[in-house]
Amino acid sequence: MPRPRRVTPAGFCYHVLNRGNGRAEVFHKPDDYAAFMRMLGEASLCRPMRVLAYCLMPNHFHLALWPAGDGDLRRWMHWLMTTHVRRYQRHYHSSGHIWQGRYKCFPVQEDEHLRIVLRYIERNPLRAALVERAELVLSAKF
Fold it and tell me: pTM, whole model, 2 decimals?
């Protein structure tokens, strides 16, 4: 029996995340992070998406996304995940699952909850002791 389709109506922000299969690293070197960032930009060219925040960690990612239309989040994430897995397998001469499973997405209320989620995403590398302070990076162009 197929999995049920995700219902992700427009008009809401979503906290989207996924983790490497078995908590394994997915981003091994700076080029892996850069490639994923390029894919975020390409996905947004194919299907417009407001990317409010993102955080790429060695074994997982967090995104705060605001789709323009009903079902856009599902299609956008499908393109991103499929493209990333194909690049990863080609680059690392591997096969099998890269991600733990389907990405998770949670609707975020447009109030204090949104601010808390954005702060959580921003501070994720700080909590993991990967950086000394949380900073906003403005170099990404989508």
Answer: 0.88
Measured between alpha carbons, how far is 73 from 128 in angstroms, rounded to an integer?
28
**Confidence check: pLDDT of 30 > 80:** yes
Planar angle of CA 33, 36, 40, nearest 5 degrees:
135
β pairing state of 60-67 and 104-108: unpaired
Domain chopping of the chain, boundaries: 13-127
Q: What is the CATH number of domain 13-127?
A: 3.30.70.1290
DSSP notation for the chain: -PPPPP---TTSEEEEEEEBGGG--S--SHHHHHHHHHHHHHHHHHS-EEEEEEEE-SSEEEEEEEESSTTHHHHHHHHHHHHHHHHHHHHHT--S--BSSSPEEEEE-TTHHHHHHHHHHHHHHHHTTSSSS---------
Q: State the Cα–Cα distance between residues 81 and 47, nearest whole angstrom.
A: 14
